[in-house]
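Lecture notes, continued. The same structure-token format from the folding unit now serves as the input rather than the output. Read the line below as a description of shape only.
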């Protein structure tokens, strides 16, 4: 039945520890079929908000690791930081509260972006935080050429701003700081869309980093896509996994020249007749402090 434990091996290597979530069956005179869908243990965080009995949930004075552990503990999910640090605590931020209707994973991803970290999992079903890979693109994909079967991208201009200003106030000392980061593409095209974000009690010297992180979050929300592929592996025969970079070109999706993208998540599919995958992608800029100088459109 559903919620059974499952472990997925590919080529004898464990790649996923999780639960069976969906089961469907069918039968006819000559055959019967069973379809099983599942996800890694942290997948439940994408389905569920926090328990009503835990509210109000305020994370004043806690860092990313402490917040994540507090939210993951009821589900029995372990939190790991892979060669990275959780960063400073979110001091005095009276806005850092979990909305009762917001899914836990969405909330964790939002605050992880403020520390320029990517959220994923590992083969043992742990919730893992990683730095965005600094490696160059490992392979190339071209729309309408094998192994790409289809793709789609979303460009939401309403979510994007030409300049993002972060203002911080130190409530105890009566001091603060301000920093503005400019979206170079919008500025160069004469588009003026400012936004100001107030974040209380940022660590000393952290206003600039907070502004850069806010730009990355906004850019990721405004430009993202999904690519469907034949198979589960890269052209170098490595398994498709989050945090890999690759080059991509698609005239139909405004990628008129090759651009570097980052895999944010992967879905693997297999049935009697096919082995396919779907990858959700963003520009690496969403997790780094450097804007791509020339965009592909």
């Amino acid at each position: 039945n559903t919620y059974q434990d499952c472990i997925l091996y590919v080529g004898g290597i464990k790649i996923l520890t999780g639960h069976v979530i969906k089961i469907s069956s069918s039968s006819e005179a000559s055959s019967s079929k069973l379809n099983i869908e599942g996800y890694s243990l942290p997948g439940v965080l994408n389905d569920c908000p926090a328990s009503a009995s835990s509210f109000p949930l305020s994370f004043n004075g806690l860092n990313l690791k402490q917040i994540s552990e507090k939210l993951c503990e009821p589900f029995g999910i372990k939190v790991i930081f892979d060669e990275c640090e959780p960063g400073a605590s979110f001091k005095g931020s009276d806005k850092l509260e979990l909305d009762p209707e917001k899914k836990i994973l969405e909330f964790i991803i939002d605050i992880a972006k403020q520390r320029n970290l990517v959220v994923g999992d590992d083969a043992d079903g742990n919730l893992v935080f990683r730095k965005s890979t600094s490696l160059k693109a490992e392979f190339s994909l071209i729309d309408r050429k094998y192994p790409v079967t289809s793709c789609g991208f979303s460009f939401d201009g309403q979510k994007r701003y030409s300049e993002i200003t972060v203002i911080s106030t130190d409530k105890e000392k009566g001091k603060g700081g301000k920093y503005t980061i400019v979206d170079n593409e919008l500025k160069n095209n004469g588009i003026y869309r400012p936004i100001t974000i107030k974040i209380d009690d940022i660590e000393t010297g952290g206003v600039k980093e907070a502004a850069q992180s806010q730009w990355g979050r906004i850019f990721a929300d405004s430009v993202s896509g999904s690519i469907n592929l034949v198979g589960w592996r890269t052209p170098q025969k490595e398994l498709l996994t989050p945090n890999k970079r690759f080059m991509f070109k698609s005239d139909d999706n405004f990628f008129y020249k090759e651009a570097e993208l980052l895999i944010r998540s992967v879905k693997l599919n297999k049935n009697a007749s096919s082995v396919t995958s779907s990858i959700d992608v963003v520009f690496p800029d969403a997790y780094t402090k450097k804007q791509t100088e020339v965009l592909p459109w």
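Point for the exam: The CA atoms of residues 270 and 276 lie 6 Å apart.
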